């Protein structure tokens, strides 16, 4: 599902940068984010803020 969204969203909405916020304790979401190429922008007490593109 995530792979489909990453391939459809940029063309459908004319954007070239996606962002995601992931709770640091959510290991599954964090590993999916890393595997898909998202980069950590900043981290606060509650979330890791990441971008792709």
Explain what the structure shows.
- This protein has about 55 residues and is α+β, with helices and mostly antiparallel strands.
- The protein has one domain (about 1-50).
- About 40% of the residues lie in helices and about 30% in strands.
- The protein has 2 helices and 3 strands, in the order αβαββ.
- A 3-stranded antiparallel sheet has the order 1-3-2, with helices on one face.
- β2 and β3 (about 50) form a beta hairpin.
- The radius of gyration is 11 Å and the shape is globular.
Brief overview:
The chain has 53 residues and is α+β, with helices and mostly antiparallel strands.
How do the helices and strands line up, and which of them pair or pack?
Blueprint: H1 2-13, E1 18-22, H2 27-35, E2 39-43, E3 48-52
Antiparallel strand pairs: 1-3, 2-3
How would you classify the helix and strand content by structural class?
alpha+beta
How many domains is the backbone divided into?
A: 1
Q: For the largest beta sheet, what order do the strands appear in spatially?
A: 1-3-2
- Could you describe the largest sheet, including whether it forms a barrel? 3 strands, antiparallel
Low-confidence stretches: none
How would you spell out the order of helices and strands?
Answer: HEHEE
Give the C-alpha Rg.
11 Å
Counted beta strands: 3
Give the DSSP E fraction (strand runs of 2 or more residues): 25-35%
Proportion in helices: 25-40%
Mean pLDDT: 89
What is the first-to-last residue Cα distance? Answer: 19 Å
Given the structure, what is the number of helices?
2
Q: Given the C-alpha coordinates, what overall shape results? A: globular
């Amino acid at each position: 599902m995530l792979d489909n969204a990453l391939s459809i969203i940029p063309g459908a909405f004319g954007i070239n940068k996606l962002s995601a916020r992931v709770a640091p304790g959510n290991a599954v979401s964090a590993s999916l984010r890393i595997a898909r190429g998202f980069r950590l922008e900043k981290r606060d007490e509650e979330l890791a803020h990441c971008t792709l593109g």
